[in-house]
Specification:
- The chain is an alpha+beta fold and 224 residues long.
- It has helices at residues 2-17, 112-121, 127-138, 183-188, 190-194; strands spanning 22-26, 31-33, 39-48, 54-57, 80-85, 88-89, 93-94, 140-143, 148-156, 159-160, 163-164, 173-181, 203-204, 207-210, 214-218.
Length: 224
C-alpha cells in the first residue's frame, strides 16, 4: 500500500510540475502537399528546459492513427498530430480502406531477451500486460537536463493509415504535434520504467505536451 501511495504521489507531482519542463517543437517551416500520395517527413525536437533528467515513452517510427486521439496501452509513445483549418481543429474520420497499425506489435515471444524480461516481471503482469510492458521497455527515452533531442516521423495527408481528414485545396491549414504519456498507464508500468537505469536519477514524465503550429499548404493536383 505504501509503495502504491508513493507511486501515486510521485506521478501527481510530475504531472503538475513537469508540463513546462519539456518542450516539443516542429522544425519544418512549412509542410507542402502537391500530391495526394506524398509523404511528409516531420522533424521535431524535444527539449528538457529543467534541471532534472526526464524519462518518457516515445515511439517515433509512426504517428498515432486513432481518430479519437486516445492512447491505448499497446501504443503508448506514438506521437499524435492535429490539423487545424485556421483556428478550428479538424476532427478526423476512420479510413476503412487504409492500412492500419491498430494491431498488436509483433515480436519474437520465444527470444532469449523476452524470456528474460518475462522471468523478471512475471509476478507483476499477466501475459497480455507482459507484452505491453516489454514494448514500453523498448521505447523509453531519457532526456537529460538542458538536453535537446531531434526526431523525424513520416506522415501522409489527408489519409494516414486508419485516420482520414476531409481536406480541400488552398485552404488555410496548420499542423501540430503532441506527445501524451497518460498517468494511469505510466503508473501501472512504473516498475518497468523505474528499472530502466537504477543508477540514474530521473523524473518520469506524465501528461501531454503540444508543439508549435506550422502552415500546411495543401494544393494537390490529384485530389479525389
Amino acid at each position: 500500500m505504501n509503495k502504491m501511495l508513493f507511486i501515486f504521489l510521485f506521478l501527481i507531482s510530475n504531472y503538475y510540475f513537469g508540463q513546462n519542463d519539456l518542450e516539443i517543437r516542429i522544425l519544418n517551416d512549412t509542410i507542402k502537399k502537391v500530391s495526394y500520395f506524398d509523404q511528409n517527413n516531420i522533424i521535431y525536437t524535444i527539449t528538457n528546459n529543467s534541471e532534472k533528467n526526464y524519462l518518457l515513452v516515445l515511439d517515433n517510427l509512426e504517428f498515432n492513427e486513432d481518430p479519437e486521439y486516445e492512447v491505448e496501452p499497446f501504443f503508448i509513445g506514438l506521437p499524435d498530430y492535429y490539423l487545424y483549418e485556421k483556428n478550428t481543429r479538424l476532427s478526423p474520420m476512420f479510413s476503412f480502406g487504409a492500412s492500419s497499425t491498430n494491431s498488436y506489435p509483433q515480436f519474437d515471444l520465444t527470444s532469449i531477451e523476452f524470456q528474460k524480461f518475462r522471468k523478471q516481471f512475471q509476478k507483476e503482469y499477466d501475459e497480455y500486460e507482459m507484452k505491453i510492458a516489454y514494448r514500453i521497455s523498448k521505447k523509453i527515452i531519457i532526456i537529460k537536463s538542458k538536453e535537446k533531442k531531434t526526431f523525424g516521423t513520416k506522415v501522409n495527408f489527408p489519409s494516414y493509415m486508419g485516420r482520414y481528414f476531409n481536406m480541400e485545396n488552398s485552404k488555410d491549414y496548420y499542423f501540430q504535434v503532441s506527445l501524451q504519456n497518460p498517468q494511469e498507464i505510466m503508473s501501472k508500468y512504473y516498475s518497468v520504467l523505474h528499472n530502466k537505469d537504477k543508477e540514474q536519477q530521473f523524473t518520469i514524465f506524465t501528461g501531454q505536451i503540444y508543439s508549435n503550429k506550422i502552415p500546411l499548404v495543401y494544393k494537390v493536383y490529384n485530389n479525389p
